[in-house]
Amino acid sequence: MSIKPFFPSAGALALHASTRRDFIYGLGASLGSVAFSALLAEEAKQQPLATKQVHFSNAKAKNVIFLMMEGGPSHLDTFDPKPTLKKLHLKEFVREGKQKSAMESGKRYYVQSPFRFIKAGRSGADMADNWTHLAKVADDLCFFRGCTVDSVNHPTAMYQMNCGNRFGGDPGLGAWVNYGLGSENRNLPGFVVLPEVSYPQGGAANWSNGYLPANFQGTPLRAKGSPILDLTPPAGVTEARQRKNLDLIAKLNSVHAAVHPNHDELSARMNSYELAFRMQMQVPETLDLSKEDEKTKELYGIGKDSTDSFGRKCLLARKLVENGVRFVQLYNGSWDSHDYIERAHGNLVRGVDQPIAALISDLKQRGLLESTLIVWCGEFGRTPDNGVRGGTAYGRDHNPNAMTIWFAGGGCNAGHTIGATDELGMNAVEGKAHVRDLHVTLLRLLGLDDNKLTYYHAGRFKQLSQFGGTVIKDLIA
Question: CB–CB of 355/313 below 8 Å?
Fold first, then answer.
């Protein structure tokens, strides 16, 4: 049996030579970058919350305190006065272009605000006059009246405001921020949540890591009792003994992780063990408000029935940011005022007004307001109308087409009101922007580009805005 030699054509030789040459050149040129990339990947795996380079070096904000007023506060009864509603009060309301269905019962009426409005600060910011403390820091605030969302249901609207997606399963804002910036303190979680006793609608998915690595999920602190269970070691267990136990567990987990390299949950659990160990050293001191002087506690309203709960959250938020926590989210619920809005909103404002103003003032005098972005919002706004029960139970329905959000610190355009709603407050008509644009702007204030802050999942690169958005330039100083 003879074997015939193969003589390729000139074209095939040229193609072969070119491919081989390119391959060798590419291999030589990329060895260093491959090794470097591998080192970076390994470092990222070992230190997933290490600080990272921002996309925009001129950004001022480094931390976020997000004040979530769950239930949908009424912009018409807080920061967006509508004198026209006084003229229309209790006149029948019919939505333009909408026929009443057979399921709708009763009539709907325009409802005026029960609160008087003032012009606060040198900027002349519009505020209901029951915001007595916040009015004193009005010039530090930037109001945005142009935001719109897509849902009138609480859980889906909460998911969209917190995660960018109405249907849940996506990373929360704090998870994205920590993914983009890393954490400034390896002894504390980078994303801390201060919920109420009852979790908000949608539950813990509001601060989930979603498809990001598990290290980026929010850490909720308990509203009552010990903020974190089992933080103190059992009696008789020394630090040295804990260290030996963790070393043994880490050794066993490492063997298992080597067999399953793509399971980041195990890596996250190993990191969480180490973080919990380090937290035992720093968390008790950070969460201990008893060492704060009485003047500070009085500033936040701690000790007063109406303000004690939220005052403690605001003071704790300041301490967490001061200690390098990147994103802190505070929840205050029950803003869903379908009736008795004067009583309901009146009590709610009374509970948060002093603590929020104290937070702004305290951060400012400590030199932290410029680097800390404060955001106040709900999941949607309210309508200028509602059904009237008994002739006096005035309230408002859900409204995705108009709401007021305000910012403080972090390079926002303080002392300005951006955007406007129509004369009834039903629709945003000036500076109108979708919530995805709000998210893109929030990231920009932190020096992050939404189009570059992506994560590959389910066959495509995903981002907070879902598919891109536009920076609201007027919100940035």
Answer: yes
pLDDT at 117 over 60: yes
What pLDDT score does 120 carry? 98
| CATH number of the domain bearing residue 462 | 3.40.720.10
Tell which residue, 164, 141, 128, 171, has the closest CA to residue 341. Answer: 128
- Reference 189, options 137, 138, 231; nearest CA is 231
Torsion sign across C-alpha atoms 324, 325, 327, 331 = negative
pTM: predicted TM-score of the whole model, two decimal places: 0.83
23, part of any domain? no
Q: How many whole angstroms separate alpha carbon 32 and alpha carbon 35?
A: 5
**Helix, strand or coil for residue 332?**
strand
* Total tally of structural domains belonging to the chain: 1
- For 161-215, the DSSP string reads HHHS-TTS-SPPHHHHHHHHH--S-TTS-SEEEE--SSPPTTGGGGG--TTS-GG
Contact criterion met (CB below 8 Å) for 143 and 161: no
Whole-number Å distance between alpha carbons of 126 and 356:
17
pLDDT digits 0-9 by tens, 360-386: 999 999 999 999 999 999 999 999 998
Instruction: Please report how many Cα atoms fall inside a 13 Å half-sphere around the Cα of residue 466, on the Cβ side.
Output: 17
Report phi then psi at 334, rounded to 5.
75, 25
- What residues does 376 pair with on adjacent strands? 67, 406
